[in-house]
């Protein structure tokens, strides 16, 4: 029985359309017995991991993968319906926000290979706490058949708890994994990153547009899926080199006037801290500017999570901290409390942020823009890339 609560935010007149599409997708999938499903869940890095796995497996197989900017509630059915009889692998992102979301996805399609990136406090407004996040996401691992594969992050405590919940074969990935793919010689700059893969005595080099040392998690996971699916190390390295960073997720935008790390798609404390680490690691001599909006859907944890982010900023060598909106001011107050050495500027709107940021940045500045989708900080990115502070954009409409 399908869980119709997943359509809670859909207008009533649209619900029959989505329901019919879902039922059609479930039945259409029965006509594709040859397809192998790879499912991805976790609190961070799901979409990059999806893109990396798709890029790797595409070196050998015909792969079906969904629109990275579409909510999984709609993306999974649409991806299934877009799959052709000649496709061999289908990659699906099982992102959850509410209790029983995973039940809905699994009633529609269960994977043969399941990947977990990491578990952290996200959507705690609905899931309660990190344990609630774990309880919902572990269902993906529990759904695996005995002949399935659980691809788990050895560096994540909650993934170890998941290992006891499945009869499938467990593949550990990450820095501490004794077996499997190893990564060395990592370096990054404003053009991308480079590293070396090692497996069974072989090695291969990777050069990619993806930045952020923490995002090696996606490379580890994708490489492991490549091994499971019988690819050579050279094929895996080529696929990782061709991986495209998801839009508005740690995207580097370098122009002669400004350099931006666009991470405006979504935000959690764990992701925000890693974004700061990436900001500090890139262009070490450049003045650093951090722009933060609210981290949404944290419920009772919201205040403490924003305070923790402020404390992290205070310990850094960021020159300017901008906060956008009322809730994000908690970050500023916490940074000030923890004796942040830079300058703090609080603004209310994205348009105001653009004007104030333009007053302090130079062509040497490196600007991080990070916030949840509801904060619409992508408008700041577009505004900084245009001479006018008020623009019309097909992505977000007129700036406000």
UniProtKB/TrEMBL annotation:
GO molecular function terms listed in the Swiss-Prot or TrEMBL record: acid-amino acid ligase activity; ATP binding
Pfam family, one: Mur_ligase_C
Stretches of the chain forming a coiled coil according to its record: none
Keywords tagged on the record: ATP-binding, Ligase, Nucleotide-binding
Keyword Plastid found: no
Domain Mur ligase C-terminal: 248-373
Range of residues in the leader sequence: none
Domain Mur ligase central, first and last residues per copy: 40-225
Domain of life: Bacteria
Record keyword Nuclease present: no
Protein name per UniProt: UDP-N-acetylmuramoyl-tripeptide--D-alanyl-D-alanine ligase
Organism, scientific name: Candidatus Curtissbacteria bacterium RIFCSPLOWO2_02_41_11
Lineage: Bacteria, Candidatus Curtissiibacteriota
């Amino acid at each position: 029985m399908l869980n119709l609560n997943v359509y809670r935010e859909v207008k009533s007149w649209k619900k029959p359309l989505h329901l019919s599409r879902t039922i059609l997708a479930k039945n259409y999938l029965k006509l594709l017995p040859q397809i192998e499903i790879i499912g991805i869940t976790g609190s961070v890095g799901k979409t990059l991991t999806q893109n990396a796995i798709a890029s790797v497996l595409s070196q050998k197989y015909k792969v079906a993968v969904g629109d990275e900017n579409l909510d999984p509630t709609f993306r999974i059915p649409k991806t299934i319906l877009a799959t052709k009889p000649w496709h061999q692998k289908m990659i699906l992102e099982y992102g959850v926000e509410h209790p029983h979301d995973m039940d809905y996805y699994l009633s529609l399609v269960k994977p043969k290979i399941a990947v977990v990136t990491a578990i952290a406090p996200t959507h705690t407004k609905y899931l309660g706490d990190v344990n609630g996040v774990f309880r919902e996401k572990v269902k993906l691992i529990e759904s695996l058949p005995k002949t399935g594969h659980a691809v788990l992050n050895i560096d994540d405590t909650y993934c170890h708890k998941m290992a006891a919940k499945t009869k499938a074969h467990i593949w550990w990935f990450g820095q501490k994994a004794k077996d499997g793919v190893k990564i060395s010689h990592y370096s990054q700059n404003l053009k991308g990153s480079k590293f070396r893969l090692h497996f069974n005595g072989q090695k291969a080099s990777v050069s990619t547009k993806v930045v952020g040392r923490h995002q090696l998690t996606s490379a580890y996971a994708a490489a492991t899926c490549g091994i499971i699916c019988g690819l050579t190390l050279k094929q895996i390295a080529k696929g990782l080199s061709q991986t495209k960073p998801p839009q508005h997720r740690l995207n580097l935008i370098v122009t002669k006037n400004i350099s931006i790390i666009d991470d405006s798609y979504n935000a959690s404390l764990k992701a925000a801290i890693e974004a700061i680490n990436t900001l500090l690691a890139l262009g070490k001599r450049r003045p650093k500017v951090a722009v933060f909006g609210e981290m949404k859907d944290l419920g009772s944890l919201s205040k403490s999570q924003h305070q923790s982010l402020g404390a992290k900023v205070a310990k850094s060598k960021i020159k300017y901290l901008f906060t956008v909106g009322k809730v994000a001011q908690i970050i500023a107050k916490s940074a000030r409390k923890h004796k942040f050495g830079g300058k703090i500027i609080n603004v209310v709107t994205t348009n105001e942020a653009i004007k104030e940021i333009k007053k302090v940045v130079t062509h040497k500045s490196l600007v991080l823009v990070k916030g949840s989708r509801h904060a619409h900080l992508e408008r700041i990115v577009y505004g900084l890339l245009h001479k006018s502070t008020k623009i019309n954009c097909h992505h977000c409409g007129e700036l406000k």
